[in-house]
Specification:
By secondary structure, this protein is α/β, with parallel strands linked by helices. It folds into 2 domains: 7-18 and 89-219, Rossmann fold (3-Layer(aba) Sandwich); 23-79, DNA polymerase, domain 1 (Orthogonal Bundle). Helices cover 44% and strands 12% of the residues. Strands 3-2-1-4-5-6 form a 6-stranded parallel β-sheet, with helices on both faces. Bound molecules: magnesium ion.
Length: 225
């Protein structure tokens, strides 16, 4: 490693809480409902279009902005209007692990800051994050668009190789790796991927609390803990 680590960038959804929580599926349901209610689409045309936008533009929101001129703030408020406590709860182990990591911890998410704050509060870990880089902060350009990462680095005043990034999506790590970041995939289900990690993934962990061990290994206990 050429430079000391300055930041650990954490994705939010399905990274800081388990993918089995069902929360993202519920948010996805609201994305579909938004397209039906606000844009008058039929239930059958929504799923293939969401899939298409996800692959071409990275997020449903970006596709809806480009092709339907939606107001991203209206969309973000709509899809995150959900009783989070029904899906996630406090994570004391994560709180302890984050407390040991002395490097600045940042949330880097395609969601809104408001949603991120609510999630962090319910998990009981908000005290560890002074900064949230949400999709608004990156000009409504989300991961995996390389521009989102460049804007995040600009906000932090950091170089790629000063950052460790943690995300549950392999495709979100590829652009990060290209910018020199150290990449950590949280894979709490896909065993096949763990056996054959991509070149773009430096570490694969089964749950987010294992990040403490990764930071310790990278810093050999020097500036990380
Ligand atoms: Mg995620």
């Amino acid at each position: 490693m050429s430079k000391p680590l300055k930041y650990v960038l954490f994705d939010l959804d399905e990274t800081l809480y388990p993918s089995q929580s069902g929360l993202m599926a519920a948010i996805g349901g609201l994305m579909s409902r938004f397209m039906e209610e606000r844009l008058g689409m039929s239930p059958t045309e929504v799923p293939p279009l969401r899939e298409h936008y996800y692959h071409v533009y990275g997020t449903t929101m970006r596709g809806l902005q480009i092709h339907h001129g939606i107001d991203p703030e209206d969309y973000l408020a709509y899809v995150h209007d959900i009783p989070l406590e029904d899906y996630i709860g406090p994570n004391d182990e994560l709180d302890r692990v984050l407390a040991k990591i002395k490097i600045e911890k940042v949330v880097f998410t395609n969601a809104s800051e408001d949603h991120a704050c609510r999630v962090l509060r319910i998990l009981g870990v908000e005290r560890h994050f002074n900064r949230i880089i949400d999709v608004r902060a990156t000009g409504y350009i989300g991961k995996p668009d390389p521009e989102a990462y460049r804007r995040a680095l600009e906000i932090l005043g950091a170089e790629g190789d000063e950052c460790l990034i943690v995300d549950d999506r392999l495709r979100n790590l590829t652009p990060a790796k290209a910018l020199g970041m150290i990449t950590v995939l949280v894979d709490d289900g896909n065993a096949a991927l763990r056996q054959n990690p991509s070149r773009d993934v430096d570490f694969v962990i089964g749950k987010v609390t294992e990040i403490g061990e990764v930071v310790w290994r990278l810093t050999l206990g020097r500036n990380g803990f």
